Amino acid sequence: MDKLIITCAITGAEVTKESNPAVPYTVEEMVESAYQAYLAGASVIHLHARYDDGTPTQDKERFRQIHDAIKSKCPDVIIQVSTGGAVGMSRDERLDVLNINPEMATLDCGTLNFGGDDIFVNTENDIKYFAEKMNNLGVRYEMECFEKGHIDTTLRFIKQNVIKNHLHYSFVLGVRGGMSGEERDFLFMKDSIPTEATFSVAGIGRFEFTLAELSIKHGGHVRVGLEDNIYIEKGVLTKSNRELVEKVVNIAKKYGREIASPAETRRILKMERE
Q1: Residue 251: which CATH number?
Q2: Do the domain assignments include residue 274?
Q3: 106 - beta bridge partners?
Q4: Residue 14 lies in a domain
Q5: How many domains, the chain?
Q6: Residues of the domain holding 234
Q7: How many CB atoms within 10 Å of residue 254?
Q8: pTM for this prediction
Q9: What average pLDDT score do residues 162-190 get?
């Protein structure tokens, strides 16, 4: 098996300090949170931008400020910027972050309900538009799939040569409106992607660590972080993103999976830029 790639989603667009005071908002908080996660074993930092009051933004200058500050603290870490933004943002608003020339970004591969009246919209034309922009810029994308139909969409686009760099999936499971985080769902997703593809799993809420363990056992990779889950165990708030990463490292030890460094992650994901 490859060494284990750990991604840490340090903040997000929805979770707030009211839910867990450890959620970072300011540049300084994000830098320290990313640095501590990196020291614990995270080679990829999944990054959303927020203003100091916690308001989410896709403004490229705010992203640039946070991105550059994290890189100055841990230069070799991979920063994966989010093009998901927040519910209601336009296509071009979500893509503004590509103007900072990131090494890696997310590519959301389908629409889903997000609770209440919220809909996270990713039409087929949106996906094509995003993929073509990333292809032209040489940005490595991670295909975020919330259910099996999203994988099927990627398979069509692979045949059409719309999606064409190394196939790396992120199964985001347990979101209300998407697939649950049960073992059967994970296995269905895993067995539906091309054999040459790599994958990571982001379990939302109570699914975070059960899915992390399943992915580790089956040769996949793991995403954890306060964007996805605010608890270290049932009813106990986590103190930090670092604590979440450390828990995954300990699970990996049970299965003999070594932790990938940023350089090793780049090799596994074929991230050499032309």
Answers
A1: 3.20.20.70
A2: no
A3: 142
A4: yes
A5: 1
A6: 6-268
A7: 10
A8: 0.96
A9: 95
Rounded (10°) CA dihedral 209, 214, 219, 223: -30
Q: How far apart are CA 8 and CA 154, in angstroms?
A: 24
- Please check whether residue 82 is in contact with residue 106, taking contact to mean a CB–CB distance below 8 angstroms: yes
Please tell me the distance from the alpha carbon of residue 25 to that of residue 52, in angstroms, as a whole number: 5
What is the three-class DSSP state of 190?
helix
Task: Please state whether beta strands 198-203 and 168-173 pair in parallel, antiparallel, or not at all (unpaired).
Answer: parallel
Secondary structure of residue 128 in the 3-state scheme? helix
- Token couple for 244: 């979440």
Residue type, 70: I
Task: Indicate the residue type of 238.
Answer: T
Q: Let me know if residue 77 belongs to a domain.
A: yes
End-to-end Cα, the chain, rounded Å:
27
Tokens of 186: 């994970």
Question: Is residue 38 situated within a structural domain?
Answer: yes
pLDDT tens-digit readout, 196-247:
999 999 999 999 999 999 999 999 999 999 999 999 999 999 999 999 999 9
> Torsions phi, psi of 198, nearest 5?
-105, 160
Supply φ then ψ for residue 49, to 5 degrees: -105, 145
Rounded to 5 degrees, φ, ψ at 146 are -100, -10
Kindly report the number of other CB atoms within 10 A of residue 258's CB atom. 14
